[in-house]
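Lab channel / #folding
Pinned by the channel admin:
"Please post every new chain as: sequence first, then the structure tokens as a reply. Keep commentary short and put observations after the output so the thread stays searchable."

First post following the new format, from NK:
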Amino acid sequence: MKICWEMLHSEEHWAIILRSRILRGSNCIQHHIFSSLWSGMKNEYNIVKENTTWLVGDGKLINFWFDHWHGEPLSETLNVPADQANSFPPKLCSYFHDTHWRIPEDILQQFPSLSLLNSQVILPTVTKPDKLVWNLNGTGILTLKEAYDFKKHHFNKVPWAKIIWSKDIPPSKSMLVWRLMLNKLPTDENLTPRGCLLPSMCSLCNRNEESSFHLFFECTYVINLWRWFASLINKQLHFQSVTDMWTICNGSWNP
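Reply from TO:
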């Protein structure tokens, strides 16, 4: 989320190039592109957008209809269909000159309430770039700590977290299980939606397609390991989902 904020906020070369690749007006692309940065931040784009506001400067960066610069986007408050809004000039700078609003007459006739902008929004007297601000603090800047706190409070607590993040388990193994539980392992099943279209086959059994559940619970090689482990703890193990493995972590046994 932090790097997504930097991409929208920064004027560094990497941010400018990435914005030109993934932004279409105020919306992001839906198709795949080869970018290690965008693949990690695309799920955060709408979260950042919903919690930021534009401070009006020269109006060159702000979309008049779709951006948050006057409360909710004007396309929503005025119930303007997307195709109709896209037929109008997009940038805010097209609707004022110097420090005075200049709404085209044909648009005012369709949306008379836009005339209220004269009294509701005071344009800056000094020309300066538009500025994106984070709504949830007093500084307007999203720090890494605030991004962490924001995400922490928006995730559900899971009962298995304290089990895997134990001082008795090597961090590399905890990370592996954490990625498994969140379905973030780079298996063929997860890489295919990202554009990596390769023939899929489990490297252990050479029979089935590679997926997280197959690798850890269905492969014949892994089934033998689970049988061996079940004999050690004297339990019957049956897995219908990944979360089923936590049923063995009860009062009588724990990793």
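NK: The chain has a mean pLDDT of 87.
TO: also worth noting, The two ends are 33 Å apart (CA to CA).
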